[in-house]
Amino acid sequence: MRFSFRRALLLAGLGFFTVSAQAQTAASLKADSLNLRKIYDEALLRGQSYDNLRYLTGTIGGRLSGSPQAEQAVQWGKTAMEKLGFDRVYLQEVMVPHWVRGAREKAEIKGAKGKGLELNVCALGGSVGTNGKLKAQVVEVKTWAELAALPDDQVRGKLVFFNRPMNPAYIETGRAYGEAGDQRRSGAVEAAKRGAVGALVRSLTLAHDDFPHTGTMRYDEKVSKIPAAALSTNGADQLSQLLKADPGLTVELEMACETLPEVKSYNVVGEIKGSKYPNEVIVVGGHLDSWDLAQGAHDDGTGCVQSIEALRLLKASGLKPERTVRAVLFMNEENGVRGGNKYAELAKAAGEKHLAAMESDGGGFTPRGFNIEAPAATVRKIQQWQPLFRPYGSTEFVAGHSGTDIEPLKDQVKALIGYDCDSQRYFDLHHTAADTFDKVNRRELELGGASMASLIYLLSKYGL
């Protein structure tokens, strides 16, 4: 093989460019590492998430769709983002359901001797009321198969008690929640099909306590609508034990809930315009609505304040995103997903190009990483940034479910990303009266916002 001087120059040049590329990569890695440190320093030294959450939960409180508190939260979110000087802040109109709980629910076990034993219950979201007191015998089941196997006369005119617990063997509590959730969502319909007059559902939690957990349930317009209530886990265990001793006992249930006409509400949107690719959008959001039993702190006040904070951290750290970054406070995730659907609808109609969408809706606990819904090659591209997060403990970049409000964007975006934090305590508080501000740790919350801002910074800089 001939070896010319010209070829030698070419090979030398290739070597030079290889070294230069490696040097450039090392330089970029160092710059990114320093910029992430800026973000985390800003969050830990001057973070605003915790104080914003204090106001949202303490001054406004629970924010069920259609309520005056939900409207107050909309105005709070808009004002908060305007004060931070985002490039654009606006509202997206959306019609939402308006279900109201009414007077506090009551339930009492009546034994053969006539003695009453109070049960801790709450109406499931969307349930009809009892129209006074509803008294009936109870039949307990754990699976759909058990219900199907019962003769009609053992179900007709009774309260069906769905007592399937969440599986404590799962490490990821969200998996256990997902598998047990069908009885809450569909229990009333399946019970009504068999002639039952009401449904009682074991609360979806691994904790053993006296807090009943609400949550949405659904009706089928072709099936009679019967009342549906959640029992605390202690109450469910107690009722199950008493039924074994006295199968003929009755439960007296009283609920005043009802569904009112739909109400106009809004998603709240704030954005920082991209410096190089303004037409490519990265969305980060949480849901502004909550259930009405408590302050809606972990579900999902934390996600809302972290989403706002993610943009503030970029701005305060002097990092100008190359792509447009948009914070969205979605309305009506809990009982309709109207806000998430409306955002996706408007984005499609406007022909917007979404690069990625991120959601925080798993509480404000210690950061673990991110769940990514995307083609395998895209997941791997995001995973290459994992080492940058090692100093901060947010290193679990895995394929997995992202979030309910961003799911409608699935066909319009390259990656859906769910912020993931420690889940072990989340379902102790989820949808209960215990979901209050005092359960949120400042450092955990601020670290979460920094993790989200850091990944947004990388997505904005490198794209997908």
TrEMBL record:
The record, for InterPro entries, names: CPQ, Peptidase_M28
What are the Peptidase M28 domain coordinates in residue numbering?
267-447
Signal peptide range equals: 1-23
One term under GO cellular component: extracellular region
Q: Which GO terms describe its biological process?
A: proteolysis
Q: State the superkingdom.
A: Bacteria
Q: Which UniProt keywords apply?
A: Carboxypeptidase, Endoplasmic reticulum, Glycoprotein, Golgi apparatus, Hydrolase, Lysosome, Metal-binding, Metalloprotease, Protease, Secreted, Signal, Zinc, Zymogen
Looking up Gene3D superfamilies in the UniProt record yields: 3.50.30.30, Zn peptidases
A single Pfam family, by name? Answer: Peptidase_M28
* Location(s), subcellular: Endoplasmic reticulum; Golgi apparatus; Lysosome; Secreted
| A GO molecular-function descriptor | metallodipeptidase activity
Subunit details for this protein?
Answer: Homodimer. The monomeric form is inactive while the homodimer is active.
Name assigned to this protein: Carboxypeptidase Q
Mind giving the lineage of the organism this protein is from? Bacteria, Pseudomonadati, Bacteroidota, Cytophagia, Cytophagales
